[in-house]
Amino acid sequence: MESYLLTEMTWPEVEAALKTVKLAIVPVGAHEQHGPHMNESCDAVLATEMAKHLAQRLHPLVLVTPTVNMGVSPHHLNFPGTISLRPETLLAVLRDMVVSLKRHGIDKVLFLNSHGGNQGTLGLACASFAQELEVDCYYAKTTASAKQAMKAHISSTLFGHSCEREVSEAYYLAPHLVRPERLVKGDIVHGGRWEGMRPGNPIQGFYRYEEMTRNGCIGDATQGSYEIGKAIVEEALDELGAAVRALLSDSTDPQPARERELAG
Amino acid sequence: MESYLLTEMTWPEVEAALKTVKLAIVPVGAHEQHGPHMNESCDAVLATEMAKHLAQRLHPLVLVTPTVNMGVSPHHLNFPGTISLRPETLLAVLRDMVVSLKRHGIDKVLFLNSHGGNQGTLGLACASFAQELEVDCYYAKTTASAKQAMKAHISSTLFGHSCEREVSEAYYLAPHLVRPERLVKGDIVHGGRWEGMRPGNPIQGFYRYEEMTRNGCIGDATQGSYEIGKAIVEEALDELGAAVRALLSDSTDPQPARERELAG
Amino acid sequence: MESYLLTEMTWPEVEAALKTVKLAIVPVGAHEQHGPHMNESCDAVLATEMAKHLAQRLHPLVLVTPTVNMGVSPHHLNFPGTISLRPETLLAVLRDMVVSLKRHGIDKVLFLNSHGGNQGTLGLACASFAQELEVDCYYAKTTASAKQAMKAHISSTLFGHSCEREVSEAYYLAPHLVRPERLVKGDIVHGGRWEGMRPGNPIQGFYRYEEMTRNGCIGDATQGSYEIGKAIVEEALDELGAAVRALLSDSTDPQPARERELAG
Amino acid sequence: MESYLLTEMTWPEVEAALKTVKLAIVPVGAHEQHGPHMNESCDAVLATEMAKHLAQRLHPLVLVTPTVNMGVSPHHLNFPGTISLRPETLLAVLRDMVVSLKRHGIDKVLFLNSHGGNQGTLGLACASFAQELEVDCYYAKTTASAKQAMKAHISSTLFGHSCEREVSEAYYLAPHLVRPERLVKGDIVHGGRWEGMRPGNPIQGFYRYEEMTRNGCIGDATQGSYEIGKAIVEEALDELGAAVRALLSDSTDPQPARERELAG
Amino acid sequence: MESYLLTEMTWPEVEAALKTVKLAIVPVGAHEQHGPHMNESCDAVLATEMAKHLAQRLHPLVLVTPTVNMGVSPHHLNFPGTISLRPETLLAVLRDMVVSLKRHGIDKVLFLNSHGGNQGTLGLACASFAQELEVDCYYAKTTASAKQAMKAHISSTLFGHSCEREVSEAYYLAPHLVRPERLVKGDIVHGGRWEGMRPGNPIQGFYRYEEMTRNGCIGDATQGSYEIGKAIVEEALDELGAAVRALLSDSTDPQPARERELAG
Amino acid sequence: MESYLLTEMTWPEVEAALKTVKLAIVPVGAHEQHGPHMNESCDAVLATEMAKHLAQRLHPLVLVTPTVNMGVSPHHLNFPGTISLRPETLLAVLRDMVVSLKRHGIDKVLFLNSHGGNQGTLGLACASFAQELEVDCYYAKTTASAKQAMKAHISSTLFGHSCEREVSEAYYLAPHLVRPERLVKGDIVHGGRWEGMRPGNPIQGFYRYEEMTRNGCIGDATQGSYEIGKAIVEEALDELGAAVRALLSDSTDPQPARERELAG
């Protein structure tokens, strides 16, 4: 299926594409340890692949930019090989990208993100760029919207990093990321400070990944499969595709300035 | 009940208190429109009051710092009176506070936050300060942990700003914030772009509050009451108090550096 | 008496007030040690109270914003409890406030400051914001203009921090700040480096407060009284009120661009 | 041939590799127009491929990090699709990468750069990081050292962007970057301001690429070939490999601090 | 008379001088309009000359660095030729200078400043560098301490810029700065906003120089003379010299850390 | 010969000059060790002198601004007396200067630079300011264009700092910089890491000057002479003068925006 991938286009091709393109998808990943059974580029590759698939579904309304292949990963820095950007740096990269895109006439951008540690920065980015650059920016976790498939196929109570979900997504989208012969469960550190800071607890905060897991994984990667990956990815693509189409049709109605009599 | 409130202490009193204090609570609020029936200082006042109550429960282990009385509120700027800090500014304020606290020997800090728009910045703050300043920082939404009381007493599907929850909290904690004679429901703009970006949707992003509500409120403030406020606040204080105590006892065990043989 | 206090208003009330308001008063304080007989919030509280009084005199031409309740206090950091912002941080907070105010149509701002350590930053703020934001910013030390009352009532040669002047102001404006039973004179360190850097000397510079005073006070707080406070505060309010009125009437005459033939 | 590519490794593999690795190669590219006959990812891909080849020659002394796949390209921004980072942003990305690498014990870094517009920033990066981070940083233009092959095979007087050299390198390293059916010569704008600013002129400065070439190319891409690419790339790899080996052997002799008697 | 001027020394000479030097004098000036009768480099030149004279008196305890020959002059920017640095820029320059000096073993620095518009920034610089760089920084207005000579010889009520004082200083220190044939009085704009903001008024703020004077001067330059300049400069040098000597002798007693029992 | 030197002009004179001036020359130097036989201000003085001479040739089309008398010299910091600015600081100074110049109507600027360590920063400055400030900025190494004179008169293979070239330039332009009685050859450290990073090598990077030369010189200063200096300087002035004239005449033809059909 066809799609607009900026990395694989010449400028005259981009010029032609810009006649229909209304939104740019920026894949945002990370470079960080993924336990003994996944490559450290996992998040960058999965974000790229998801963006390509989503772009096919939304062709010719969107184009995909180069991937932001490193992200905010300080919690993984004590595992060898992790490269982490500070949030300020990621913001600067995204700002420059959005400024460049706007120069080409694109004022809607979706940051398609595969790494939880980037979410806070992406939220700030969207708010800041709306103020500073007069653009509409959105962000989405790549497969977070596949709620039914997750419910059906994921049984670990603690999952989300190099687990059955992520391994399954990789089997479906980029199998070279997985070392099938090394798949192991997360080697969880029980009783740690991290347990009080997981989502849903009264208090959040920063902890290092080795406080939670000795091998850098959580969940049970041995339960991953191509089929689960397909279910998750396709449901997420359905959801994301519909959401982007809704946004693009909405935006044909320009937002009126707040009416002065609004509380009359 | 007794508590350590930095704003009401002299330096010899602080010096004495530091013998038992292990954590500082920084109330973080906002200055932003709260519809026609609440003062714009609502979030700053509620964060302050929650911090005072929490400090009483945790006395003499904690002290309360001055309140950060403005926050990240760009989505409210089109309503008269809102003052918004950029995320970078809020980060700078919090960093300086943490640096000052560390100088006094305090290396654990809880940002007790009443305003949703601050959460992303607080998450980044905790991660950054752990790297830069060798402190443990945490953050909590003031009453988000009162899940049972919320479930029992809040019936609006869309709530969270100048709604029955917030008005109830104010009736209990700071009734001068409420104008009982002006209470109205949120005047919601149906069919807007914002509906696709509420929590739980595939895509998040920035929208202005007037895109969602003509009068600046959501939910149904007319349903608020002192009793509901009491139920929410007290449950949240129970949860927060227990969570802080758990953190403080945990931390008596120093976190070992990641062991080199961890994947052996 | 009536006044516009942003913290106690709803947005429709602010919208109505903006029809007459020409200038915003930003109270700027500090959170720092004030010896054994005053609360550390002293400067933040006094700035707030002075702003309220000044707003009453200038009603309905001015409104009061939330207070900047921490300031630039590095010289006090070795006394327990002091929280200090870097000058860059204070500038960022003020800039964001002025940007927000300008969005609401206010392009004149008075920083009403109670803390000497903020003065340098406020001077830079006024110059920078005039360039960057096209606003007119002013700053004033809360009671510095009460020259006659000072002359009449203050006998200490070295005064200005938790002294008879400040205690008197607090007795009049916010008596809960004072611990009457603990009032002491400043315990001055004679012969120190600081003596060569007091105002009026050939050389200025930075010194820490403990170089000058062992108990964090200077002057003689035991000489303070409600009556002195009243004399100082009321004279200062007279002076400030007249000065603001003069500025506001001046500014009805727009400043012409420099005429090209000016030196002809 | 074997090599250490961080993107294709797990953390235990990185941990093992770090026993021999002495230097990290950071591929630095760009995303910018390359005329009608090359993909916009050209520089990012070529830098990556060169890094892989160099790592094979230097195995097991080096590892390759993720690629910096966007660079400083403001001069190309008027051609559709170009994404440009500000120099400050590129510096921030590189600094964060070096900080992360140093945490893993690597204190020598080579920025292997394929894009002329990045050279100035890389020079500053090396100088700054040496001061700030106590690391030794180096940078190299990917094939600039292939002087003999260039002399033998390149006849255009003006070349260096989407020309016979770059097309040849791509034929050899990543042929999918080239559109053989669209190859054209640079459509040069004669008599422009740019002519006075080419290397070797008395004055340098910034000009936009469209001032120099109407189609975004210079040189004569139609003269490119796999053989020329092979000659250039292999000579450059020989030169780079020898240079890195020399650096690594040098550095076994620690640099003594400047001797005090040096001018005796 | 001998002195250490860094601009006129070789590195072996500096190395030798550092055996006795305890403090660096940094001349800080400005480049800004000085009316029709003085060169725009006036402040830079006068600061340099004052530093040279002061260094002679304090030889061999001090050395003079290169001059900061531009300053913070936004209020003069509407007069042709003025070059103004932002306060942040001046701070950055001074910080880099102090860092360099500290590397050479000098940890006491006096900013000798001839331009009023720099004073606020210099105050912040001293406070910030003390925190960040563990140095003692001081600042002085070049001739402000010549109180008796000023009182005896200056009769204008409004003076301080290209007036009889400054012209006199130039006659004595650098007569080429003055155009004797063009000397004029300040052409003051009476009734302006600036009158309410002069020193001693209740309110300070930023105003542009052309609001106050049509020809860029204040005071009465025609009253200036070599003799007045000599009186002012020599008195100031006496005062500054004594003050620096006092600081340097003080500092032989290291400042003790605040004693814990200070309020006992 | 006449020229416009901003440091020696009054504002009415600048106003008059601006009627013909089209470009500002900013002399950019450094303050750094120049071995035992040249003053540390060498680069600042030579840049200033070159600018004056060039301005005479181009009168009345150009004016000369104050000199940037410190530069980016981290590689010299281990020699006593060197003062180094960070690249960010130099950029900030240049930006403020360009902003000020633009305010006076000058939108073309030439940074005339005598110090190699500044070149990278000047390249970034020109690119950044073109984007941010809508100005045309250029930079030139003061005498780099004197290729024939260099070829005829310089025999050292390694030269460029306090060598026969620089000493000769000083003999011609500012002989007080030289100590004829102390002239020595560079005391080169053979076999060092620096040899692999000199221009023309495959790899560049940062090294400290003492790694290369024990006395801070390279080349053979004893071979310098007034005549060589004259030959170099005059050839360079010829080249620079012609290049600036070409730029100024070019720019009378405004650059058209890129034509949309450019690749048709």
From TrEMBL, chains A, B, C, D, E, F:
Name under which the protein is recorded: Creatininase family protein
Family from the record: Belongs to the creatininase superfamily.
PANTHER family: 2-AMINO-5-FORMYLAMINO-6-RIBOSYLAMINOPYRIMIDIN-4(3H)-ONE 5'-MONOPHOSPHATE DEFORMYLASE (PTHR35005:SF1), 3-DEHYDRO-SCYLLO-INOSOSE HYDROLASE (PTHR35005)
Signal peptide as annotated in the record: none
Entry-linked Gene3D superfamilies: Creatininase
Pfam families according to UniProt: Creatininase
Recorded GO MF terms: hydrolase activity, acting on carbon-nitrogen (but not peptide) bonds, in linear amides; metal ion binding
GO biological process annotation, one example: riboflavin biosynthetic process
Cofactor dependency: Zn(2+)
Keywords: Hydrolase, Metal-binding, Zinc
